[in-house]
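Protein Record: Sequence and Backbone Structure Tokens
======================================================
Scope: a single protein chain, as residues and as a discrete description of its fold.
Tokens: labelled as protein backbone structure tokens, with as many entries as the chain has residues.
Position: the record begins directly beneath this header, with no further notes in between.
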Amino acid sequence: MRKKHEKYLYQLTFLPRLLPVNSYLVEEDNELTLIDAALPYSFKEILRTAESIGKPITKICLTHAHDDHVGGLDNLKNKLPNAKVYISSRDAKLLAGDKSLQADEPNTPIRGGVPKGIQTKPDVLLNEGDAIGSLLTISTPGHTPGSLTFLDTRTNTLIAGDTFQIRGGIAVAGQLRVSFPFPAMATWNKEQALQSAKKLMKYKPALLAVGHGNLLNNPSSAMNHAIREAERKIG
């Protein structure tokens, strides 16, 4: 595992050289919020990092319900029974293994590793604008129907799940990067992903943190370039 620290944010990267998968710990005054649970074995390093920081994990927020973002959830909940689990009301269905579409959704198949056999039930179902400590919930559907981004309002950091990827070259979800094609292959709806990426530009982020790839400071120019490329390919 590789760890990077920027202000209130700790990025934990599993398999950093091969297939990087990120989890994030967000530091509050007296506690930690975990964003994404990575791979099944990742819980051990997540817990060790929290112990080294010296604050308890009291909240587990999920950007979306793909295997590489919820893999360690059951193990974490077993070790942290009082930690509350947060996910969008839409992706709670995916967490339970239900890949059916809702009547108002584009008829494109849900892709990627939808979990099977996750025992943990969410405690809180999130919607646009909900606050979790210093974090603001932003609805960013596209990679999955209920994907979320979290904005740290203290630092203007966007923790965007797979709405963007950085590994292989920055791209909007659904736009293929040959050297790291997996986020594109797992994206549900490219058009909605593009609209969500445009939405995130309005927050003028100081730092972009995603599910796959390094932290990106002052990301607006790179995000805008990725959006323009997606517009050309989709439009």
Observations:
- The radius of gyration is 16 Å.
- The longest strand covers residues 21-27.
